[in-house]
Known about the structure:
By secondary structure, this protein is mainly α. It is 94% helix and 0% strand. The protein has one helix at residues 12-190. It is rod-shaped. The chain starts with 11 loop residues before the first helix and ends with a helix.
Amino acid sequence: MMAIPMFRRIPRKLEEVLGEEGTNEFVDFINDSFGANRENVVELVSDRFENRLSEELNTFRSEYKTDLADLRAEFKSDLAALRAEVKEDIAELRAEVKEDIAELRAEVKEDIAELRAEVKEDIAELRAEVKEDIAALRAEVKEDIAELRTEMNEKISELRIEIHKLISVQTKWMLGAIIALTGIFSIIVKL
């Protein structure tokens, strides 16, 4: 590709001083000089842009990894807390059931002679109630876990959307910088 000369004419007074041959040589000299400088400027600007782009990408990657690690740690922490709460609730329920059964046994022993039939009925009813309570508690725990999973999935989806938005904004910024640099390069080339 042949370079377009930067200077085609020089001031008339200078042309008169240099003469036609000197003018042509002077114009060729100036065009050669500016052509060599233009290549150096293009290479320098390209190198600087690549370095800046690399730095920005590395910064983004680092921030993304940090945010993802924080999210994972928070999720693990929340999940561990939920497990601890569930275990604690189950332990309390077991203790309560054991207390109720112990009280019931004491009452049964006191009234065993008179109320044997009634005690058997009460025990059967109590067992059914305890089973229902345990079943209800299990259902509630499962429901709570499902809600927590849904919330965590929503939060993860929101974070993904936010990350995609950030990537989009950064891409637009980079395209703007490229366009601006192209414009600046065009101005430099025209000079």
